Inverse folding.
């Protein structure tokens, strides 16, 4: 689930949550292995160390504040939240942080922005790094995606005038939009989350 | 007289048909598969053949399009000679490869198209070819495809000695420096120049090899040297596995479709796990070697109408044999059969007498250890002897007698808890709630014969006091979330068995056994008649359904090698004697694939298991 709140000045908050609690048995069984599909399976301690590195690295980036990550290794629910001064700084910060924690400098060279905001219009798409990862999934994993769900929420200080993605649902106060889909459909068609949201002028 | 003539004719023709390719197997081969009747493989495509794990060493040679659409017949192989696959490990190198007969050299080189002839003047009547990875050696209509790899430990040892003799610094210290930031590196460089006492750093001189280049050169030199020594041994001194081990020679004469040879005593010699004994306790290591002397595993592969049988003989010396004989002197525990349901698609029983094995091992091993004049070993012997006196062996071996069984009862949905995110439909604010979930889990039962049921009961009673997750349910104990932190484990202590299972149905409804729903009398009889071991797996319904992510890499590789196959695997054993135990693995198939393919399937299973 992602929840993006954008204030009129372009600053905002990004919340991101991963809930693997319905696959506890599977996740625990994978964690009990040394390797899977020829790749080393990290231990919980290694995952925790990576989360700390992510948190510390992101907090150091320009325009980012209030970084917090909550980790629940019983139900495997991870929640991340940070404040940003502009969506562009947010994206640069995330790109740099992912490049550092995954030791992959090519991520920083991607000039693709998946969010843009000009005080009236918010354009959303799916980050290319996520698309790359989706292409690497095996058929077995792809089938499992059918049981997962994805929710994307965009919140504003102002009322939404109109939006282009017909799958979006407008909240009662007309200041928020939500798109819900399953992870398999998202893998098949990443444009499912794309949206251009027009806000009323102040 | 006619019969005698006919018999001689068979012997002579067999001797002719079995010549050559096996004489090219080096004496250092520890594991050898020999396929005698390779006519069975005539129609198998090479692409299919090289997809097996046991062919992985020559994948690089053959996965280059040169094999596309070709069969072994197209590759110019002589189907009157044996096809031998071998693997071995000597002190400083590993070797692996194949030997086979050649009928058409031209056809052979359409498949092995990356080889170039190299000169070995000492070898008469032998032509040696090499490619980037392997060597192909031809002699009198037979071929040896071999890869010799020096052990990296040895290569590194020699590289280090050359590296330091040249006045270089420790490579790891240099690496640490290069990881620092640029400013730090500059400072260090300046200091070195000023002090003027820096060691020559090979990396800074283009005419000097850096550490990795030096290691590559050492590896290459050893590879050539070891290959040359091996070829001299084979073709000049005429030393090969046949004339080095009479067991192997005798094995080759068996008129079966294939044979298997595995010398565990030599495998022990080269086992890296025993390096400490080799280095620091050489006399004890010698005693261990003696204990394992003659420990060979020999097998015959026999093709029948709808099955491939693998008859294995495990040979050992007197001392090891006396321990195994005592260990396997155990009565079959009939109670276990009650707990294997007829619907089970995979089960095994293991029947040993741990107390007798312990006592015999104590009798055999303690005198060996006592001869060792080493403080640590002496202290260990003292501890073992004191434990032997003070520990209540009746209680210990009454709790675990040594016999056990396991059964796989399919995949079931088990109830677990999940946290659900839910959203307010008006504000889209989200909340969390606990909900029921279902996940697939293999249902497995594992049981042990037990004489002292009171001992695990003591443990469980105390556990129940410590945590509410452990509950006495009357006929069974329940331990919540014990499996993968999600599913309950049930424990049943009845009928002289202590059973662990995640099958709720077994715990609640069948704690005294499945009665009429247990395995049939015919199946039970087979298990009872087998020696210390019996196993059965229905391949399609067991292995194909077993989740990949519950097993380690090696187990997964074995299961992958059987996926998509039909039929069943049955494992039986004989009574153990002082010199051998016989084990039989039967692979029965129902599909319509070529019989040669089933033979390769079984060889592949054995290869993956023995690797």
């Amino acid at each position: 689930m992602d929840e993006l709140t954008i204030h009129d000045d372009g600053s905002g908050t990004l919340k991101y949550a991963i809930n693997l609690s319905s696959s506890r048995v599977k996740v625990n069984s994978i964690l009990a292995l040394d390797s899977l599909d020829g790749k080393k399976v990290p231990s919980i301690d290694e995952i925790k160390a990576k989360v700390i590195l992510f948190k510390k690295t992101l907090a150091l980036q320009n325009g980012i504040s209030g970084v917090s990550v909550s980790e629940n290794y019983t139900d495997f629910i991870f929640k991340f939240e940070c404040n940003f001064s502009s969506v562009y700084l947010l994206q640069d910060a995330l790109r740099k942080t992912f490049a550092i924690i995954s030791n992959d400098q090519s991520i920083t060279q991607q000039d693709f922005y998946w969010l843009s905001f000009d005080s009236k219009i918010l354009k959303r798409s799916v980050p290319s790094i996520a698309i790359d990862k989706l292409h690497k999934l095996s058929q077995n994993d792809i089938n499992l995606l059918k049981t997962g769900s994805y929710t994307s929420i965009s919140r504003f200080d102002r009322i939404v005038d109109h939006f282009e993605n017909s799958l979006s649902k407008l909240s009662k106060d007309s200041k928020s939009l939500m798109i819900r889909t399953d992870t398999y459909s998202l893998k098949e068609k990443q444009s499912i989350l794309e949206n251009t949201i027009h806000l009323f002028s102040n | 007289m006619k019969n005698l003539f006919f018999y001689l004719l068979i012997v002579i023709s067999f001797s002719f048909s079995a010549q050559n390719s096996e004489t090219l197997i080096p004496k250092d081969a520890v594991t050898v598969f020999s396929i005698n009747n390779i006519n069975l493989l005539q129609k198998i495509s090479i692409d299919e053949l090289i997809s097996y794990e046991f062919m992985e060493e020559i994948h690089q040679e053959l996965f280059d399009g040169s094999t596309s659409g070709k069969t072994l017949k197209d590759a110019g192989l002589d189907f009157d000679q044996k096809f031998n696959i071998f693997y071995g490990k000597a002190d400083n190198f590993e070797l692996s490869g194949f030997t086979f007969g050649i009928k058409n050299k031209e056809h052979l080189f359409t498949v092995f198209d990356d080889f170039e002839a190299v000169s070995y003047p000492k070898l008469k009547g032998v032509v040696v070819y090499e490619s980037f990875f392997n060597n192909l050696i031809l002699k009198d209509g037979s071929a040896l495809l071999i890869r010799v790899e020096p052990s990296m430990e040895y290569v590194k040892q020699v590289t280090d000695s050359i590296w330091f003799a040249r006045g270089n610094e420790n490579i790891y210290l240099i690496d640490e420096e290069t990881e620092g930031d640029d400013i730090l590196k500059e400072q260090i460089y300046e200091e070195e120049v000023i002090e003027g006492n820096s060691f020559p750093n090979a990396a800074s001189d283009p005419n000097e090899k850096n550490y990795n280049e030096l290691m590559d050169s050492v590896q290459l030199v050893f590879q050539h040297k070891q290959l040359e020594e091996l070829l001299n041994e084979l073709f000049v001194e005429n030393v090969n596995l046949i004339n080095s081990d009479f067991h192997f020679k005798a094995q080759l004469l068996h008129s079966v479709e294939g044979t298997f040879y595995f010398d565990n005593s030599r495998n022990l010699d080269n086992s890296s796990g025993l390096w400490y004994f080799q280095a620091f306790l050489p006399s004890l290591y010698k005693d261990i070697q003696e204990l394992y002397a003659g420990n060979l595993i020999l097998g015959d592969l026999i093709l029948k109408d709808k099955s491939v049988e693998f008859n294995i003989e495990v040979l050992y010396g007197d001392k090891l044999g006396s321990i195994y004989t005592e260990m396997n002197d155990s009565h079959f525990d009939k109670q276990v059969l009650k707990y294997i349901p007829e619907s089970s698609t995979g089960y095994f029983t293991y029947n040993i007498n741990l107390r007798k094995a312990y006592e015999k091992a104590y009798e055999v091993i303690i005198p060996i250890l006592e001869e060792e004049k080493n403080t640590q070993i002496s202290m260990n012997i003292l501890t073992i002897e004191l434990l032997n006196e003070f520990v209540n062996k009746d209680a210990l071996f009454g709790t675990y007698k040594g016999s056990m069984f396991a059964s796989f009862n399919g995949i079931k949905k088990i109830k677990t808890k999940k946290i659900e995110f839910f959203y307010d439909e008006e504000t889209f604010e989200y909340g969390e709630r606990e909900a029921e979930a279902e996940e697939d889990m293999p249902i497995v039962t594992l049981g042990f014969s037990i004489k002292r049921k009171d001992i695990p009961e003591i443990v469980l009673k105390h556990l129940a006091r410590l945590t509410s997750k452990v509950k006495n349910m009357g006929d069974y104990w329940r331990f919540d979330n014990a499996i993968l932190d999600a599913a309950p484990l049930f424990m049943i202590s009845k009928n002289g068995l202590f059973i662990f299972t995640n099958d709720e149905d077994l715990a609640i409804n069948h704690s005294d056994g499945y009665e009429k729903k247990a395995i049939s009398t015919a199946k039970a009889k087979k298990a009872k008649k087998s020696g210390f071991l019996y196993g059965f797996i229905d391949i399609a319904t067991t292995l194909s359904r077993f989740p990949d992510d519950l097993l380690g890499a090696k187990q997964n590789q074995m299961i992958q090698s059987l996926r998509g196959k039909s039929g069943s695997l049955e494992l039986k054993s004989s009574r153990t004697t002082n010199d051998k135990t016989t084990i039989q693995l039967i692979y029965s198939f129902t599909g319509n694939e070529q019989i040669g393919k089933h033979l390769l399937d079984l060889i592949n299973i054995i290869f993956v298991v023995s690797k």
Residues 21 and 75 of chain A are 5 Å apart (CA to CA). Chain A touches chain B through 31 residues (CB under 8 Å).
